[in-house]
Fold this protein.
Amino acid sequence: MAAELTAHQLIAQHRPTLDQALEAIRTRAYWSPHPEHPKAYGENGSLDMAAGKAAFDALLGGRLDLGQPGTDDWVGGEVSPYGIELGVTYPHADVDTLLPAMRAGQRAWRDAGAEMRAVVCLEILKRISDRTHEFAHAVMHTSGQAFMMAFQAGGPHAQDRGLEAVAYAYVEQVRTPDDAEWTKPQGKRDPIALTKRFTPVPRGVALVIGCNTFPTWNGYPGLFASLATGNAVLVKPHPRAVLPLALTVQVAREVLAEAGFDPNLVALAAERAGEGIAKTLATRPEIRIIDYTGSTAFGDWLEANARQAQVYTEKAGVNTVLVESTDNYKGMLSNLAFSLSLYSGQMCTTPQNLLIPRDGIRTEEGPRTYDEVVADLARSVGGLLGDDARANGLLGAIVNPDVKARLEAAAGLGEVALASREIANPDFPDAVVRTPVIVKLDGAKPDDQAAFMNECFGPVSFAVAVDSAADAVALLRRTIANKGAMTVGAYTTSEEVEEAVQEACLEECAQLSLNLTGGVYVNQTAAFSDFHGSGGNPAANAALCDGAFVANRFRVVEVRREA
Amino acid sequence: MAAELTAHQLIAQHRPTLDQALEAIRTRAYWSPHPEHPKAYGENGSLDMAAGKAAFDALLGGRLDLGQPGTDDWVGGEVSPYGIELGVTYPHADVDTLLPAMRAGQRAWRDAGAEMRAVVCLEILKRISDRTHEFAHAVMHTSGQAFMMAFQAGGPHAQDRGLEAVAYAYVEQVRTPDDAEWTKPQGKRDPIALTKRFTPVPRGVALVIGCNTFPTWNGYPGLFASLATGNAVLVKPHPRAVLPLALTVQVAREVLAEAGFDPNLVALAAERAGEGIAKTLATRPEIRIIDYTGSTAFGDWLEANARQAQVYTEKAGVNTVLVESTDNYKGMLSNLAFSLSLYSGQMCTTPQNLLIPRDGIRTEEGPRTYDEVVADLARSVGGLLGDDARANGLLGAIVNPDVKARLEAAAGLGEVALASREIANPDFPDAVVRTPVIVKLDGAKPDDQAAFMNECFGPVSFAVAVDSAADAVALLRRTIANKGAMTVGAYTTSEEVEEAVQEACLEECAQLSLNLTGGVYVNQTAAFSDFHGSGGNPAANAALCDGAFVANRFRVVEVRREA
């Protein structure tokens, strides 16, 4: 088959972007090729706002036929957290047919080499980028994110993370040269000479198990890391968030085919309600790599049972912010208020426990008691979300009934410093929109500890009174060690406290944001610069992205012979 | 404490070597800083042959006091495969005291940074190199290797593998810069600016579980990879091969102390006979990394049970050489004869199954029948080992009674093409020295398959008659997939067969040597150039050395704040 996209074209078009990505992960300075502003789209083949919305609307109620082999049925049933039924159906796969078909194209994909795989991945990302407006609606109506967040986190930021994974995968594969001449001196005798050829080979079929809240952002790193290292990739989306990953698979299959490769190198495994296909897939012998984002229970199950595979998990943690002192009290409050509110706290990186000395904190405006700090924070959140339109734009919708139930139960755990408020969404009357609750707890009380030492995913934060900064650091250590943490924040003007918090994070292996008062928030990480998770505490066994995230997705086979 | 070895001195002395190692792993051309010739030693502080022997003799019957905390007893009992009792005793550790003591120095070691750790490791290797003659006797009298092999494989080649691990560890840690400035444009508003600090942090205490046959060669990669990435390292040697690793620990502790670090960052865990301390240590919560070389059964146990640790295993495989055709029949026979004889086949890389078409092979001297090939190979081995002195120098001694028992049992498995012969060692009358046995088996017979499809570690090879080259390739694939392989060899002048063997090795992930007829053997790999194992088949889950071998021994913690 004559490829419509030649290696020459793809390399000419994408190699400069790959080189910039390689430079960015080396310097970790700011960089992104994917515009964050909705108005940046609409030229050079990309869909503008209206076209993206129209494309999304055209998908509703239809069948997304990916042309996959072994399709034995059509399944669907997504209902947007904003209330609309998507009505899209997807291929349901007979895995005994699909998995062998996915392996058929692996040899050609392997033989294409690391650079060709990288630029094919970049072409996939480019086409996804062009459809960012369409993806934004797909992410919004599966995750419940507000439009702007679905656009940015589900679009350019997710694409950045995918590109970052491609860059890491590429550089890892080319660390060993394709060929080597090895000539060993033998004193007066002739040297011994060998020629050696090194080939990166894939592990097999990789499985990506998607999540409900960030289907693209959390799905792309594993998907692209595995594909770029030569593996076929089977995408098993969360049953409530199929569409964004199904579109991704569709684009990948198109590009692979146009570049002369077997489209079955990327496939979708949608499931019937309650089918629980992830366990079956995860233990199939063909599956050699698994990327998973979701609950700790299933992540632990995968690590224990999918022994034939390399398993990369992002599970749950309990994120802490230490509030000890600040020289920008208002900045701190508004920064924290935003962090607690964004996407109704439904991020694995949202702070849960705010540790505040019961004797109060120092600020540039003088001391503030524990009660004052909590009341001021509550006021700050209240102010941020006081306007319903802005609140809707920040909070998005509650993603599922479990989150709503946890939110409602949280008010019974202690004294409520800020009650959750119901907000109407004029565009989507069925959307469940709630402001965060802040509950006061005492770090010294066992019952309270039982509450705040477990992840309470959703718009729930605990203002935990602690005896001292030292007590807070000790509690932080215990929390990371026992429960894991995706993020840690701290506010302090004390060198001693800063040093103690840093040392706790270095020893317990958690990513720390210090004294954020401006437009960067503890729950946000930027691709090419910030690591997402550390891979060294119970919240996640891998970080996005580093060498460890890609290095074991392929192996290098050497063939040597006498020169 | 004022360090006797300053960072400045160590970097000045060792940075050039590190840079050369970094270049070598990038080009994979021949390089080694460690001389292979015994006469190269004796100047610049290194021990010459006589001094090395004297140093070894001085150890015998003595107590090797490493100054470790928590030493509750002294244990020993090594008996050389050459018959002499070493009589050395080693500290037996109370691990509840030793493990916490090992963690005490980790913060300073972490804060020293990747370059300082690398040059401290290089200083350790330098001092080991200076004592290569002493180590050679220690390796010889624990592994049973002949002196020259113990000298080279246990000395410079092991040191090369250790240095290679340091180089990989270093480069992996400096991929992320120490600091970054991140400035994100905000249109007309001021940009957002963050400063970020990235610190490689260790996982915890690493455990190295040594083996009997190559205590240093197989032990050094894990030891140095873990130490160079900031971890403390506990070395649990094989009870029959303690001395080489105990000396290694001694040198490491000396250098660490002189450089101002806690010597307890490296410690020895010797055990009483039958104590089985490896299982206890491997599941301690402090142990976060394990490197293991040995039986498949215990390697599998570690992978299944030491779930709190990153586990790197080199287990057993069944190595195959395909003999289909050659244009250098004599070269092939002598190359194979050497491979089968070296260290009595007691290498994880020694070929076991020689697959030969029952219709014979093509050679530059005309066709040879299966029987002729096997007879010629037997004659070639016989000739190589015909002289007892040369035989002793190649074979070494049988390492333990199990190997001897397997050798004796092998003769009953089929028609013996070459019988094993007992050889006297004039220097060590109690040494058990045996030439290899070659047994003819039929690849089509189930009973024969049962014999050759299991690892028969020791001087046992099977000449397996197969129906065709295609049959041989199919059998090769099955063997790698089911049993694993550290090495694969093939002799063929047919492009088609070469292609089929290569494809089998690429798909099943095994390292291939083609048509070796000169002074390089399928069972030898050179550091900085050849990978040892692939990490992609059941024989080993890691390769020596690549990025995957080091990337997950540390994590990177980021601390970010507003600029």
